[in-house]
Write a structure and sequence with these properties.
Number of strands: 22
Radius of gyration: 24 Å
CATH superfamily of the largest domain: CoaB-like
CATH architecture of the largest domain: 3-Layer(aba) Sandwich
Structural class: alpha/beta
Mean pLDDT: 92
Bound molecules: flavin mononucleotide
Number of domains: 2
CATH topology of the largest domain: Rossmann fold
CATH class of the largest domain: Alpha Beta
Distance between the termini: 39 Å
Strand content: 15-25%
Largest sheet: 8 strands, mixed
């Protein structure tokens, strides 16, 4: 099932230029194909030195184009048609050289000619040595391209293929995929109806980690995928979305303000600092307990006795946010991750926490919910008195679709209610 429903059936022209990061574009092709995209690739001369046309053709399941002067290619397709028969042109990796050609309008090979001839949106994922990236020439080219509406994802900071560290790493395939979906999604571009515009929402996501000593910690299996998808869904409907997240490998959802934390205490503090909000969705898997006395130094095995970890209860973020008061969000949504008697436990949680809705899901062994792509959830709504008003059973959906559907339900609910911040 697609992670980004918007990508199904879309046509991507992927230009792969000559950088080490070209190997990551192979993974990008695979992921785009998984989403149902048609992927046609142009390899620059440099690009073909890093990945072979055979691999690119096999993964994209299409012919690969690299020669401007190929009589066969020109008669079959032609570089102008190539540049127009796509919904989006993606350049990954975008080398300093190709960015310079794009900025100055050079067209001396198939990649640059195609980019000059296109009338489609263009997304670049730069990748290069950090000094090349920081060079005023590259920065000027980037500014010129941004001024012309060329979208960009990355580069990220980190260790570079040249052995140095700095800004210049190509964005990861998952990040590029999310950026592609955002460019192609009229709602994410702010071109559709935005029922949550002017609304401020808070989403928590991911696990928390609770230290034992400077090197060890207690955590859980939450991937953050569902929470991030909800934040994405809310931002897509125009909400000012604050995402408070524990450590996850998920890319930042486009258009959200991300606050990274590690412990439950930090998550609570970040949530409280974000109030007032119209809506709070607590999707994070907050550790119930933390270690009472965190060791200042690494606990050593050879110090005789086995350490006994005394646990103390963590703050209950959902219950705290649900407490009546001037800053209580108009709608508080909790999550119930259960391994058995899902609805029964979810209903009890709805009453116990005094929240308004509970999204219940089964995370038991064999369900594949933790870390997986899909989720089967039930939406429980409370009456004003805290009883059970209704239960909706949603079908098996991708986590992105659950996020979009929940965001729509939230938008319907808050329509017409006063705003937390005017
Ligand atoms: C081993 C090696 C790695 C390279 N990596 C990069 C890179 O990551 N980014 C970049 O902008 N150029 C890189 N270059 C330089 C480009 O390959 C060179 O500028 C080439 O002309 C780019 O052509 P193209 O943009 O048409 O693909 C690298 C060159 C070599 C030999």
């Amino acid at each position: 099932m697609p992670d980004f429903p918007i990508l199904d059936g879309k046509r991507i022209l992927l230009v792969i230029a000559g950088g080490i990061a070209a190997y990551k574009s192979l993974e990008l092709i695979r992921r785009l194909r998984e989403q149902g995209c048609g992927v046609r690739c142009v390899l620059s001369e440099g690009g073909a030195r890093f990945v072979t046309p055979l691999t690119v053709a096999a993964l994209s399941e299409d012919k690969v184009y690299h020669d401007l002067w190929s009589l066969t290619d020109e008669s079959e397709m032609g570089h102008i048609r190539l540049s127009r028969e796509a919904d989006l042109v993606v350049v990954a990796p975008a080398t300093a050289d190709l960015l310079a050609k794009m900025a100055t309008g050079l067209a001396d090979d198939l990649a640059s000619t195609t980019l000059l001839a296109t009338d489609k949106p263009v997304l670049v994922a730069p990748a290069m040595n950090s000094l090349m990236w920081a060079h005023p020439a590259t920065q000027t080219n980037i500014a010129v391209l941004a001024g012309r509406g060329v979208r960009r994802i990355g580069p990220n900071a980190g260790s570079l293929a040249c052995g140095e560290t700095g800004t210049g790493r190509m964005a990861e395939p998952a990040e590029i995929l999310a950026a592609i979906a955002a460019v192609l999604d009229p709602l994410a571009r702010g071109e559709g109806p935005e029922p949550l515009r002017g609304r401020r929402v808070l989403v928590t996501s991911g696990p928390t980690i609770e230290p034992i000593d400077p090197v060890r910690y207690i955590t859980n299996r939450s991937s953050g995928r569902q929470g991030h998808a909800i934040a994405r869904g809310l931002a897509r409907l125009g909400a000012h979305t604050i995402l408070v997240t524990g450590p996850t490998a998920e890319p930042d959802p486009p258009g959200t303000h991300v606050i990274r934390i590690e412990t439950a205490d930090q998550m609570l503090a970040a949530c409280q600092a974000s109030l007032p909000v119209d809506v709070a969705v607590c999707a994070a898997a907050v550790a119930d307990w933390r270690v009472r006395n965190v060791a200042g130094q690494k606990l050593k095995k050879d110090q005789g006795e086995m350490p006994i970890l005394e646990l103390v209860e963590n703050p209950d973020i959902l219950a705290t946010l649900s407490k009546a008061g001037p800053h209580r969000p108009g709608l508080v949504v909790g999550f119930a991750a259960e391994t058995q008697r899902v609805l029964e436990h979810a209903q009890a949680k709805l009453a116990r926490k005094a929240c308004d809705w509970i999204v219940a899901n089964n995370v038991g062994p064999g369900t594949g919910t933790f870390g997986g792509e899909r989720n089967t959830v039930h939406l429980l709504r409370a009456t004003a008195e805290g009883g059970l008003a209704s239960v909706e059973d949603w079908p098996l959906l991708s986590k992105v679709s659950v996020g979009e559907r929940l965001a729509t339900a939230i938008a319907d609910h808050v329509a017409g209610t006063p705003r937390a911040v005017s």
